[in-house]
Write a structure and sequence with these properties.
301 residues, Beta-galactosidase, Chain A, domain 5, ten-stranded antiparallel sheet, eight-stranded antiparallel sheet, 21 strands, globular, binds 6-O-phosphono-beta-D-glucopyranose
């Protein structure tokens, strides 16, 4: 299917009315609507849909580097902010609608000359987006195809829509340590996360998170999971779960103004909650093994 500006996309449509659009550019989920028509994700009115940059909103994918600087575990000195997955053209591996109406698309991205110039490793990414009546699940499987062990970073950089960010809370992070990227210091969360100014924090773990807005009954639940998958050839594989990091971000007034594709008032109606694999203790993936990072988003009206 062709989406905005003739860009290729896959439209998942569940018979309950749930809908999800996924652009091949960046494998970016740009829309998730639940059966009652509510749009769960935020997309900037200034988002660029022509393949020239990452889509500002929905769920851009960060891989293999978080932020502007590579860390020593990556073994490279620099790469563009948030890596290349969100600006690469992905391929459709499969798309299906099951008998019960549930639908799914699997997209892939493999290393190429262009990616190896930035990140000298062979890898295979599989991104599965599954939609049913009650939830949207997105799962990124990163397989190391290289002899050398690698420790890529990754994020499901999810932009959630909210009516008023100043009235919005994220619960599920009480007591969790975080690194404040703005203050360059570490602290621990007390109670829910609220937003009274620019917010940019990397929480060291998260599993079940809930977004709520004061005065509203509806909530959005996010179940976050990460798994290390070790392959033993013919004797099978083992799966070891571990807690992902979670980035919480809102740019507030001046950062929003400084971004050309971010509508000036848009920061009031969005917040990013981004499951990721970022920290220094993240798994080093041996040849043939994988890490799966996933989120299941459930909007409860
Ligand atoms: C967040 C980072 O994940 O992404 C922020 O924590 C960053 O520091 C934000 O500003 C947006 O990044 P970008 O590259 O999409 O403007």
């Amino acid at each position: 299917r062709l989406g905005k500006n003739g860009q290729e996309m896959v439209a998942l449509r569940h018979r309950s009315g749930a809908a999800c659009d996924v652009y091949l550019h960046g494998a970016t989920v740009s829309r998730y609507a639940v059966p009652n028509g509510h749009e769960v994700l935020w997309v900037s009115s200034g988002a660029v849909f022509n393949g020239s940059k990452a889509i500002r909103g929905g769920v851009p994918l960060v891989f293999p580097q978080f932020g502007p600087k590579a860390d020593e575990l990556l073994g490279i000195t620099s790469m563009s902010q948030h890596g290349f997955a969100r600006t690469s053209k992905w391929s459709v591996r499969s798309a299906e609608v099951r008998l019960n109406g549930d639908c799914q698309v699997v997209l892939t991205l493999e290393d190429s000359e262009a990616t190896r110039e930035k990140f000298p490793h062979k890898f295979s990414l599989l991104y599965t987006v599954s939609l049913n009546e009650t939830c949207l699940r997105t799962a990124l499987k990163m397989t190391n195809m290289d002899k050398a062990t690698v420790a890529p970073q990754a994020l499901l950089h999810t932009y959630f829509a909210t009516d008023e960010v100043a009235q919005t809370r994220v619960s599920g992070l009480d007591g969790v340590s975080y690194y404040d990227q703005l203050a360059d210091e570490t602290d621990a969360q007390h109670g829910d996360v609220s937003f009274c100014g620019e917010t940019d924090r990397v929480y060291e773990r998260g599993d079940k998170l809930v977004i709520s807005c004061e005065g509203q009954r509806a909530v959005t639940e996010i179940a976050v999971e990460a798994t290390y998958v070790e392959e033993f050839g013919e004797s099978g594989s083992s799966a070891t779960p571990f807690a992902p990091d979670v980035v919480v971000w809102n740019p507030h007034v001046s950062k929003a103004k400084a971004m050309s594709d971010f509508d000036d008032d848009g920061w009031k109606r969005m917040l990013c909650v981004e499951p990721g694999i970022l920290n220094k203790n993240r798994p080093k993936i041996a040849e043939g093994n994988s890490v799966i990072l996933s989120q299941t988003i459930t909007y409860i009206p």
